[in-house]
Every structure is written in C-alpha cells, then in structure tokens.
Amino acid sequence: MEKNLSEYVSISKNIENLKLEKTVKIAIMSSFTLNGLDETIRVMCSELDTRCHSYVSGYNQYNQELLNSQSNYYDFSPNITFLILDIRNFLGDTFHYPYDISDEERKLLVKEKTEQLENIISLFEKNTKSKLVISNFNIPFYSPNGIIETKSNFGFHEMIEEINSSLRQMCKEKNSIYVYDFNNFVSRYGENNIFDYRQFHVGDIQITYNLIPNLANDLMSYVKPLLGKTRKCIVLDLDNTLWGGIVGEDGINGIELGHTPTGKAFVEFQKELLSLWNQGIILSINSKNNFDDAMKVIREHPDMILREKHFASIQINWNDKAENMIQISTEANIGLDSFVFFDDDKLNQERIKHEFPEILTVNVSDDPSNFVPILKGINDFNVLHRTTEDSNRGEMYAQQRQRRNFENSVSNLDEFLKQLKIKVKIKKANKFLTPRISQLTLKTNQFNLTTKRYQEEEIQKLSNNENFEVGCAQVLDKFGDNGITGVYIIEKNKNLWIIDTFLLSCRIIGRGIETAILTEIVKKAKQNGITELRANFIPTLKNKPSENFLSDFGFQKNNDYWIYDLNNEIKTSNHLEVETD
C-alpha cells in the first residue's frame, strides 16, 4: 500500500471540504475492533472523487442493529454494508474447546450458527435495499488436535469449513449479498502477521493496524463497481513488457519468450492477461516499434499467448505515447479513466501520469517475474455481477476493429450502415437483464440524457411498478452481437409519459440505433393514447455527444423540459431492422 494507517487517518481529517463528484453511504459492522478502517475507506473513496458518508456500529453490536428494523443503522440507509465477523466470537468457548463436546454436538452447533447467519441475511434483505458484504471465517492454523486434526470426525477446521460453505451457498442466488473471503485475506498476509496477541488483549483488535489499509483496499473492490468506477482496458507496451528484449534489434528469434526463466515470466504474464480478457477486460497496444517486426511476433511466435484478435486497438508506431492513448480512446470509444497502462519504461510511465492523471499508470518492476503479482494486485477490474456482455467484451471489441476496417473500405456512411445489416431487439426488463441494465446506468456517460444511476434492486423495483417501463436494446450486425447496449426508463402517467433515462453504450453511437429506439417509444406512446411525451437533458462534463439528440429528433424545448408533439410524423430508419418483445 502507498500509505500507512496513520497517514490515512490524518488525511481523513481534511477531506470534508473537498468538492467531490459523487456520494456513497457505507456502513461498517464488526464483531471485533476495527479502528481506522472507516477513515481509510473514506480517504480511498475521496481518491475516486466520491464523498463517503459512513456509519460504524458499536462494538459487537451488529446483531442488535440488524435485527431491529428501527435501529440507527436502518435510519442511515447505506448503499453498502460491510459485516466483518471473527470466528472466536462467533463460536464462543467452542473455539478453544471444540473437542469438549461430541461430534454430533459440534454438528448441531454448526447448524445453529449457520441458521443465525441465515436469519441475519433474511432480515437484512427484508429491511433494506443496501448491498451486504459479509465476511467468511478464517480457519486458524492451530488445532487442539494437532497433527491428527485431519483425522478428526467433523473436527474443528471442518466445522469452520462447513460454516463457510453454507454461507457461500446461501448467498449465491441473492443479488444483493456477497461473501468477502476473509479466510483468503488471512492466507495472503499470514495469520502471524495479522493477529497480534498484545493488540488483541488490549482491545479485541484482531487485525494489526498496519494491515487495515490492505483490508480497506479489498473492501473497495465492492465499492468501485457500485460507483461505476471500475476500469476495463489494459494498455500494454511490447518490448520488455509482453516479451523480453527489443524485437527491432534482436529479431523474432532473439527475444525472450518461453523456455528461459525470464521468457517463462513473460508467458505467465500473457496467460494472466488472457484470463482477464476472457472475463471481459479489453487489451490494447501502445508501443514505439516497427509495426511489421512487432506484428510478426504477435502473429507467428510459437510461445505468444496473446494474438492479434485479442487487441481492441493496436498502436505500434513511433508517435508520442500520449498521442497513441488518445487514438486508442477514440478507436475503442471509451474514456481514458477506464485505462490501466502497463509499460516497463519509467519515462513512459511518467509521461502518461503527467499527461493523463485519470489513467491508472502501473509502477512496473524491472523483474518480469513480478508482473503477475502486480497485475493481480490491481482491484479495479471487479464487477458485482458478471453479465454476458462482460464475458464477451474482448471479442466484441475485436469485432469493433473489424467494423472500423470495413467502414474505411466503404465509400460513404450511408452505404456503411446499410451493409452492416443492423438488427435492434428491444426487450422489457426481467431478472436476467436487470444486472446489465443497472450496469449501463452506472457506467454510461457519453450518450446518456440524464445520467441517473440505478442499482440492481432499484431497477427491479421500477420493473415491478406499473407506473414505469424499463426496457433495453440488444444490437446485432454482420460482425456479431454487441449485446445489451441501450436502456430506457419511462415514467407513465395518465396522459403523459416522461423519459426518465435514455442511454446508449459508447461503442454503438453513430449508427442511428438511438433514433430507432426512441421511435419505438414514440409509437408505443401513441398506441396507448398518450398526448405528451416529455424528456430532459441534464448536461455533464461527459455527455456532450447526446446534447442535440432530442432537438434533432423533433423535441421542442419548453422551460426545463423537452416536449415531443405526438402528432408529428414518426421517424423511420431504413438501414436497420427493429424487433420488439
């Protein structure tokens, strides 16, 4: 971590007057003392341009607060709640004396404790729309049975494993409940490093102070996607980053990739990158190099894991790397704040840090065997729910590159759009589409009329409300499926419909799809006898691409709203096909 706990606590005293873009409400509950976690999380949120309002429950008061629907906790109404429990308090005396009771009694105790967790989760779901992140339990290295612990019938460690397994199982189908793998946290940093008996005896402190920032960093993995602050594109150098050596000087046979210890480190790094690509992280290249030399390695080297198809944008030239970053952003049509830059050259790192502070520029080690641990330590790629679009994003952006090449080969835009053979499928929201709809409202900035943000639970609530209609659009063309890339939310009154939300993913802007979706809304309004369709445009720093959409469609400005005359002739798009549920 870049800062220690005392630094975070000190900084937290001076963040109240900062002007920050977003706000989030976070509750922290625990069964033991977690001094400094609240302050550290608030500072980490401020670094994301977000003001964190926090609620910290009293010492070991989580049961009383969660079980009482009138408690201060529920009055606070957080967006996300972290419930961090420890196995000592949870098991009571059985933690120290598990073999003083019979095998059957241990099983009954685990059943009772599991039901206790289930009751907490059920009441939480009933009383709040917050997201709950509950920790599992660490399995201590020590057992009273020593080396024959694994021979014990439903022994001490197996008891904790059973509780963890039950907790994981009960949360799998609950969209608002997540299990934080605290057992993994202890394994990563070591039980002897985390647990200090002196601190424990002073005040039930079970995580040493110097590792509180590491815990906070883990918990921020849940906050970032909640805020739409995740990153989705890794921009990579080539020489001494994806392979060892300089291909322009060493040639394809002289670079280090595979076979040697150093070469194996680069292969391992590429495997980890491919794993992220398979989970929906976009890869791009920004390299000062001879294009033909570099592409020969990418296309032909037998130990190359990443191939041309894995890159959304390939900038291999002798241009300034900052200039190439702009080109990648333009080609992929995503903001620079979605980028992570990985380059071994310290000068290039400083250049990008200075020019684009919104890009996460990684401090890369000189030793390629450290690349994988560094990459795994970045917690900006997480999602709260992995959608089909997430998993297929890498492939979708490869298809996008094909579209760009095709567009450049066609004489004019109209001909390009006709030959794309676009099909727009408009769908009503359901439980399978809700995560993606929420994700788009949280992350879409450029073509977004109001930039209202909705969590999954809020989308589900609107979908079940007869006074609202929540819909989305799946877009396909000759190159493949773009997935769910458009969302609209309509507030329906007796004679008036209001467009609450209307957005389109940046990667399909400029193909007339937005007009086709709005046309279907207009048609439906007329069919339902609506006399007025009203919309709003709320300008932000990022949504200028949607600024003229309403006026171009035919809406007229009336005070704060835009009004569409439903007697107007309805626009049609001849270059695409529209299908509705």
CATH class of the largest domain: Alpha Beta
How many whole angstroms does the radius of gyration measure? 27 Å
Average pLDDT, all residues: 92
Number of strands: 19
Overall shape: it is globular
CATH names the topology of the largest domain as Rossmann fold
CATH superfamily of the largest domain: SGNH hydrolase
Largest sheet: 9 strands, mixed
The count of domains is 3
Helix segment count? 24
Spans of at least 5 consecutive residues whose pLDDT stays below 50 are none
Share of β-strand residues: 15-25%
Span between termini? 50 Å
CATH architecture of the largest domain: 3-Layer(aba) Sandwich
Please estimate the helix content: 40-55%
Defining key terms:
about 575 residues; alpha/beta; Rossmann fold; Aminopeptidase; 5-stranded parallel sheet; globular
